[in-house]
Sequence to fold (416 residues):
Amino acid sequence: MPQVQNWQIGREMEYPYEDAYPERQFAFVFNINRCIACQTCTMACKSTWTFARGQEFMWWNNVETKPYGGYPQHWDVKLLRMLEEANPGRQTWDPDGRFEGKTVFEAASTREGPEGHQRALGYIPTDEEWRFPNIYEDTPTGGDAHSSRGAYDPDGTALPVHRTWFFYLQRLCNHCSYPACLAACPRRAIYKRSEDGIVLIDQKRCRGYKKCVEACPYKKPMFRSTTRVSEKCIACYPRIEGKDPLTGGKPMETRCMTACVGKIRLQGLVKIGEDGSWVEDRQNPLYYLVKVAKVALPLYPQFGTQPNGYYIPPRWVPRPYLQQMFGPGVDEAIDRYVMPSRELLAVLQLFRTTQRIIFRYEIEEGKKVYERTVDGKTWAMYDDTIAGFDQAGNEVTRVSVEEPIHIRPERYVNSI
Fold:
């Protein structure tokens, strides 16, 4: 197979097609630490795109409770086990952050079928695995020999790592740079848009072979029995194109992003170079979070698809679990999040402050409002103001680090 450069795993890898990159890439950052699992994002997507007959069990956006939850069930554990069987004991990262194991594309040759080996290692989930989108919601696991599934620590817990823990994982299609669904489709019905990198299925070409369902390691393409073709998250591309009248022709965030109650989501577009890497764009909030502050990490980068969804890891979860999920940058990401720099703290305020896509930010410095010592280090908070700008340079949001307090006048006192 051709060799392509995957910067998330630090090396070249095999992929069925020659490299081809969009001008800009749809990408997003989720702050797991803020999620309350209200499922507002899930229902916003459901009510917009998957409410019709044959879509009853389609959840393009879902929030699942880790470590036991998953939709479909066991999607990650089953694939991790398959990768380990294909490359026993060698699915590891070196000290420099280079993945030494096999990706789903490189391990595919170990799985032979009637038509030859797979293009991407994968499997078809059972009907039962698709049946329960909220399986094991809020179910904790314990960190000692006396704990069991669903049992809480009677003695309480404390940071940095909880003995009893769970966390919420927000998932939608990652619109990968090297999509496994695209690689596996025998009809070439799946394509990646050149203008924004959004991955779509041409349903006129699709014949329902389910190869995309089988190949996607995140299980985000889904088969619709009433139409006999596959469907998936389309990144609300009419909104990305600025066709929603609400923003007057300006690029707009997706439905799941704008509905987020916990303000955990930030979404946008990043510039892509000829070699597939992100072009330096220092004042783009996504570029800053992923490339500069390095607090946001890809989900299972070892799969090799180079997903464009990034996560700020939960600070209370045992590090080995997070490292197998987000790669070797977990410790550094959590350390930077726990004691955020002045700039990082300001950028974090941009999450869910506007429905328009933010292309650039500027920070106006404010006064010091708080100071404390953490692990022998002094940390200070400043009431800076951060402004976000759209593609044309128009200011679309402005927010301060310290939220203002509003006191209701007596004449407006609530009668209740």
